[in-house]
Amino acid sequence: MPTSPPRVCPTCRTTIPPGPCPLCRREQRREGDQRRGTAAQRGYGHDWQLTRAAYLREHRLCTLCNRPATVADHHPETRRSLVARGVPDPDAWHRLRPLCKRCHDRHTGLTSPGGWNATRSR
Predict the structure, then answer these.
(1) CB count in 10 Å sphere of residue 31
(2) In this structure, are residues 18 and 7 in contact, taking their beta carbons and an 8 Å threshold?
(3) Is 43 exposed, middle or buried (0-12, 13-18, 19+ CB in 10 A)?
């Protein structure tokens, strides 16, 4: 099966194999990460890590599939919306639910299509 010849990336002008330019993708990812900020800047610092660990010690199973829980998910509202509303303790246990990563990723994909960047302006 023949392959496509190399081409020149229109952005960085380097010769690349068929498909997206790996140099440009890396730069776009780096710029996006800088806009996003660190976990601590987004409100998931040391206090959150302690709260999350304690919550998952007490709530060991995913509420959706009964697998071992690895994520303390803010539910039904996101942490961002709770902070925006001025809720005094957005990380209170009654605002969390235990999920496995698979269920968390599925739920996030359904409720936030496009990831964090698509919901930035909310």
Answers:
(1) 10
(2) yes
(3) middle
CA 89 – CA 51 distance, rounded (Å): 11
Which backbone phi and psi does 18 adopt, to 5 degrees? -55, 145
User: Can you give the pTM of this predicted structure?
Assistant: 0.69
| pLDDT at site 118 | 59
Q: Which of 1, 24, 25 is nearest to 14 (CA)?
A: 24
pLDDT over 50 at 122, yes or no:
no
Q: What's the rounded Cα separation, in Å, for the pair 84 and 73?
A: 17
- Provide mean pLDDT across the span 58-82: 95
Q: Domain spans of the chain?
A: 46-114
Tokens of 25: 């993708």
- Taking the C-alpha atoms of residue 47 and residue 89, their distance in angstroms, rounded to an integer, is 12
Our CA dihedral for 27, 29, 35, 41, rounded to 10 degrees, sits at: -130
pLDDT of the residue at 31: 85
Structure tokens at 69: 């829980």
